[in-house]
Please model this.
Amino acid sequence: MVRILLKFSEQTVEQPIVSQIILDLKVPLNILTAYVNSKGGEVLAEIPDEALEKVVAAFRMRNVTVSLPKLIEVDTEKCISCGSCVALCPVEAITLDEEYSVVFDKEKCVGSTCSACVDACPARAIKSVKQNNHELHSSR
Amino acid sequence: MEEKALKPQKNTRTIEEINQKIRNGDVQVLTAEEMKKLVESSGVEVAFREVDVVTTGTFGAMCSSGAIVNIGHPDPPIKLENAWMNDVPICHPGAAVDLYIGASAMSTTQPYEYGGGHLIEDLVAGKEVELKANSYGTDCYPRTQVKTNLTKDDLNQFYLLNFRNCYQHYNCAVNSRDETIYTYMGKLLPRMRNATFSGAGELNPLMNDPDYETIGIGTRIFLGGTQGYVIGEGTQHEASSLNGTLMVRGNAKKMSPEFLRGAAFTRYGTTLYVGLGIPIPILNEGLARKTAIRDEEIFTNVVDYGVPRRDRPKLARVSYKELKSGGVTVGDRRIRVSSLSSLKKARKIAGTLKDWIVQGEFFLSAPVERLPLDGVFKSMKQTEAIVFVVNVMQKAVTCRETDAVSAIAKRIVTKSVNHIVVVDEQGKLTGIVTSWDITRALAEGKDALAEIVTRHVFTAKPDEPLETASKRLAQHNISALPVIDNKNKVLGIVTSEDISKQLGRK
Ligand code: SF4
Ligand code: SF4
Model:
């Protein structure tokens, strides 16, 4: 699966673009987070790797800005298990186990759109990384 | 039974007796956490009889740390004046080639990201570092420049020499401001959306010997993965308020980066995480009782770091048990809390120290001198007066949201002010309008204040230094801040005009 970040403008936010594309392309599109109001919005969604190109093209055709958010990774070698990151995470993707080791749930983490934990790590063990070699051509 | 009657139970033991048991291989050692369980299940008396030593540990950011290095003389020799290692400025407090690497000194090329703490970690890990230095040149030390690469093996001495470590307990920090702040207590989200704390609680060495019966000058300890020593009380030591600290020393060449880590606090600076553990010999029942202290008996204050003052408001009192549970209660709110120091490593240190003693690799030492119990941590004597918002604020001209724009326009003229603060019937802040807003409204023929009022208002507190209020004005490109109390009631207004007048006077 690959995650895409969709940015809707004031004009596009009103239209049912996401459902249109799901219907047109018959691609399962899993919405992870969505912040939308009348002035526009941001939707983080997950789609199958092989559908990336056509989904991106379809959104761009409808004037939606598409980008690939980065994923968050914790370097366990560098991590000193201080726990500073834990209470900052809005989705509880980082927790401590009974041994006070930090457990990072990659699935739960919403990725570089959040990044709340990144600059709080004193060991600089939290990094944002590209999604497995996916690249978008000509972004807009 | 009979035997017991013949041989009365001793109610003390000595460090020499414990060391003999270590030699014999039958010493009984528990970590502080294990000791608490034993005392709970079997009582103090049994714990005293059965346990010789309790080990403690802590692993946290300790900024007042550093290392003494002697780098040897080059040929021709140089009397170092300014020196950098990996671009970190190094302090040169003594003779020709003695240097002190301060943990919080920041690299000139990667400030906030790399500093003295990282440099010490790199040296400890065996990495090569670059030394650059210059000097004015003397008859005996003619050289003015030197540049070379060094590892710890090239250094004559490399000693960790920390002048304040092992704080007995520390604050829990929150931030009441509207913006995220970055502090030495980490990243604090606005409106108290998170909290941070530091310290190992019941595992902390000083908490387990609060009367300094066994910890003193000369006490052998675990420091950075090897054996080190307490060389005195740390700076700001105040035993009476449970704010004890230690000054420690250890051979950094033998330390391990597992227990000594450079760290970067965003927008604050760099530091060193230090692993420190102390064995507490259980010399009497009193020490058995003291080492049984639990997290629920150790308290600290929730402090508002959003207030830029030395004496920050204390909002609540919480135990380390609550802190370690991940949430604290302040008023009617539950706030998620993170530790800044590693409890996992603190445990590992206590466990490692226990293993060393059991395996006969570590012997206890009696202090040669006690640490002071009566010292007081004084604040700085200031000879220059600091100006606070309350000193320059003026009475605010206010209006109610129901007032007509034309009436307010009149008030602006008669009072000759540029800002009108909008308040409700209780005098609480609801918005602000400027003379510019009013002019525009009049020009556009609007007469309802509600249409032009700015509701997201940046404010100041009366007891905040004028300098921070002035920074806020500049940051948001505005010219006045209503001054409010904790209940949002308007006390006055401070304008950039007043501030520049005040600062101009200095
Ligand atoms: S990036 Fe955000 S969601 Fe992901 S782990 Fe960090 S704080 Fe949690
Ligand atoms: S803040 Fe960094 S070092 Fe601390 S627990 Fe989180 S990932 Fe590990």
Summary: Residues 72-155 of chain B form one domain. The longest strand of chain B covers residues 157-165. The mean pLDDT of chain B is 92. Chain B touches chain A at residues 59, 61, 113, 182, 186-187, 189, 194-196, 261, 263-266, 271, 273, 326, 336-345, 347 (CB under 8 Å).
